[in-house]
Amino acid sequence: MSKIFSSSKEVENYHIDSGYSENFCVAPFTTLLLEPDGKVGACRHKGCEFPVGNILENSFDEIWNGDFIKNWRQEFLNGTPVICKTEIKDRKCHHCPEYNSLTKKVKELNVHQSIKPMRLAFNFNGHCNLECQMCHVWQKPNALYDKINFWEKLDFWIENLHEVELLSGEPFIQKDTYKLIDLLSEKKPNAEWTITTNANWKLNDHIKSQLNKIKMKNLIISLDSTRAETYKVIRKKGDFNKALQTMKDLQDYDLWRLSNGLSGLNIRINFLFQQENWQELGDVYNFSKTHQVEVFRTFLYEPTQYSLLSLEETRRTDILEWYFSNLSLQQILNSTRVIRPLIDSLNPVNKFYFYEKYHQLIKDNHEKGA
Q1: Alpha-carbon distances of 128 from 68, 150, 325, 327, 357, rounded to whole Å
Q2: Going by C-beta distance under 8 Å and a sequence separation of 6 or more, which residues neighbour residue 239?
Q3: Nearest CA to 227 among 292, 278, 170?
């Protein structure tokens, strides 16, 4: 896989040079996510509870060019996003180099799209071996797409397919995953795949042989903790050591792929910060170095009962004080997606105090470097 953008800044500059605002996002112009219960989304960051239609109730054109998604596109074309205001401010996901990999291939950036989606997430069922506390996907249906004979309609949906995503449930224990690989490796052999997994399974020869058929873009392992006991609380029914072993096996398999002329897996780890694991924000920096793997730090907004934002303000200020007292500047700079929403949630006085603290750390570091 050739990397289109090497940084979020490059993405931002490209958008501006192309005549779009710094707040532009390409997702609703390129992507649809098919969910286990029939809902259809357009962005993995907004999640499956932010649908633009329903495959059980709407035609393809009602979904892909319905009023809702067209209004969403218009907001980005105008440079005044409302729907994604929080995500743009806190996550900067609209500048993600990976998610903008299709930007230069888009033939039209119009409110009405005559060309079918370039990226599809086939989340066919919620079948999962874990019951993570912040997730409800494992409770969703498991055979809807068989019942509606979606496989017979697959050619229609993949007409302009460039990228595939598998997100919900656990893809590597679902028969639908391997059926899809068999079909798309023949019909769309150049499509690049991103698969998100909990890694609570054993990498065997069958899985390797299936992965050998496709071009991988990313393999994302959702870990959420560096501590076995905390992992067990967040990822119910999960085994931290099994996940680590599968990660290591995948790293070895990745080397084999590269040595045999196949695309790399581009393994990444995701940590979703919430009430149970907030003290591990610095630990993931060391985890990344120790295991030689890139780490994403993301912030849990919903369900609210597990979010740091639902804590009393005094508790949130205590957590921020702990971060600024115990984390290095590098760890803090790598964690803005977690720290910024906390600061922004405070009253104006506390908000000003912590942003001053943040900017002073950066200033002091620059002066030391000078």
Answers
A1: 31, 21, 39, 35, 43
A2: 200
A3: 278
Find out whether 187 and 158 touch, Cβ atoms under 8 Å: yes
Give 2-47 pLDDT, tens digit per residue.
568 888 889 888 888 888 888 999 999 999 999 999 999 999 887 7
- φ, ψ dihedrals at 192, nearest 5°: -100, 140
Calculate the alpha carbon distances from 265 to 138, 209, 247, 252 in Å: 25, 14, 11, 11
pLDDT value at residue 369: 60
Judging by beta carbons within 10 Å of its beta carbon (0-12, 13-18, 19+), is residue 206 exposed, middle or buried?
Answer: exposed
Tokens of 178: 């391997």
- Residue 303: asked if its preceding bond is cis (omega within 30°), the reply is yes
CA angle 193, 88, 48 (to 5 degrees): 50
Residue with tokens 């997702």: 27
Entry pTM? 0.93
- 89 vs 46: CA distance, rounded Å: 14
- φ and ψ of 26, to 5 deg: -90, -10
Structure tokens at 168: 């919900």
Residue 337 CA to residue 347 CA, distance in Å, equals: 19
As separate numbers, helices (DSSP H) first and strands (DSSP E) second, the chain gives: 16, 11
Compute the distance between CA of residue 259 and CA of residue 112 in angstroms, rounded to an integer. Answer: 44
